Amino acid sequence: PESFPPLRNEAAVRVLRGRMKGIQGHCNSCYMDAALFSLFSCTSVLDSMLFMPFPLNDRNVQGILRDEIVNPLRRTGFVRASSVMHLREQLTDKGQCSSFTNAEKDPEEFLNLIMQQILGMEPLLKLQSGGREQDCYCYQIFLDKQEDLVVPNVQQLVERSFLSSDLKLVEIPSCFIIQMPRFGKEYKMFSKIIPSLELDITDLLLDSPRECCLCGDVATLEC
């Protein structure tokens, strides 16, 4: 099948900027639209989802994802709402959940269904907390109200979230999907979040050698 590479630099600006660009929303699809755009528009990290040989009964989901959503997004910068609804209908059939076509869902629920239950992918993240390991496909930032953070960046939010939850990455992930703090119509924790174009995970890694903030040698204790 025909395939298109992810958009980069000037090409991304040219193809994705302007009216009638992105993924068209319809019937509470915003969580899925945003997730699909983030995962595929400008990166190929998860392109294995589009081409890996999966069981025949799951190829339809893979085909819709590749041919009706990702390729049009990368080729013209626009995906029709009907294409996303086609995927939602398939997910409803596969997930034993009748509300995928009309209700708003948590992005993590969508990712777990399509990555684990349908495509059978290995978990992308290995986390440790309190000596126990857990596998997952994405990480959602949980934080109490931070008075000193008015307009935070993603680096700050991830580090503080890991610290407050006593979490560490067991290994460097091949793909680190991060869900920003929740907000609703009544409340927003942050009015804006600055995207960190690079993420330093040195302090998030389990047993990773780090330098002492005083002398610069390898640290033996962690504050």
N-to-C span: 53 Å
CATH topology of the largest domain: Cathepsin B, Chain A
Strand-residue proportion? 5-15%
CATH architecture descriptor name of the largest domain: Alpha-Beta Complex
How many alpha or pi helices? 7
**Rg on CA atoms, Å:** 19 Å
CATH superfamily of the largest domain: Cysteine proteinases
Please summarize the sheet with the most strands. 3 strands, antiparallel
Query: Mean pLDDT, rounded to whole units?
Result: 90
Mind telling me the CATH class of the largest domain? Alpha Beta
SSE topology string: HEHHHEHHEEEHEE
Which regions are unreliable across 5 or more consecutive residues at pLDDT < 50?
none
Structural class: alpha/beta
For the record, the count of structural domains works out to 2
Overall geometric form:
globular
What is the percent of helical residues?
Answer: 25-40%
Instruction: Tell me the strand order in the biggest sheet.
Output: 4-3-6
Main location: cytoplasm
GO biological process, one term: protein deubiquitination
Domain Peptidase C19 ubiquitin carboxyl-terminal hydrolase: 22-201
Keywords: Cytoplasm, Hydrolase, Microtubule
